Amino acid sequence: MLTVNKLLPGGQGLAQVLLKRAPSVELDWDVRQKSRFDATDSSGRHLGVFLPRGTLVRGGDVLIAEDGSMVRVLAAPQPVLVVRPCSEHGTPFDLVRAAYHLGNRHVQLELQPDHLKFEPDHVLADMLRQMHLIVTEEQSAFEPEGGAYAAGGHSHGHGGHDHHDHGHAHALAPVAAPVRGKPLNIAVRAADVPHVHGPGCGHDH
């Protein structure tokens, strides 16, 4: 077994010609969020990875083995739920609302300009569909945002999200109202704002 104890984020400082020649290892997020794991690279070498606790391995990173050899990390496609706004009746702001609710549930979440991505969870998928978002299951690389779990090195397995004591209430949106010439933030439920859908929307109501 070849020991690996060093990681170069994004292969920084390495010549592209060297990276292209290096063997690779394809890992899903469940493995890449761990600091210690075994793997086999594309040349058939058995790797024992021992990184500083709390280290997250990203697609594009380079592992350095004890013999000085390099191994390129590829983010393996895996089952994920992809969340998009309804193109006919929704707005991009719907994704902001979805990210807020998922963040309240401590879900590891990949943020993109036009979609969100997280590991499969049918309870959360149903909640998002009730919010008039399009949720599809796909096979794709998963690179969630950093944050508290990145610093603490927590390991979340597939389907391991905890939903106890979380209500599925709508988000509160601030509305400005003038009082004696000064704005006052008043919270109203998103459910109180009309949301109109036509026959081609495709949501389950």
UniProtKB/TrEMBL annotation:
Highest taxon in the source lineage: Bacteria
Keywords for the protein's UniProt record, in alphabetical order: Chaperone, Cytoplasm, Nickel
Residues in UreE urease accessory N-terminal domain copies: 7-71
InterPro entries given in the database record: UreE (IPR012406), UreE_C_dom (IPR007864), UreE_N (IPR004029), UreE_N_sf (IPR036118)
GO biological process terms held by the UniProt record: protein folding; protein-containing complex assembly; urea metabolic process
CDD domains: UreE
Region (Disordered): 145-168
Compartments (UniProt record): Cytoplasm
Function: Involved in urease metallocenter assembly. Binds nickel. Probably functions as a nickel donor during metallocenter assembly.
Protein name as annotated: Urease accessory protein UreE
Annotated gene: ureE
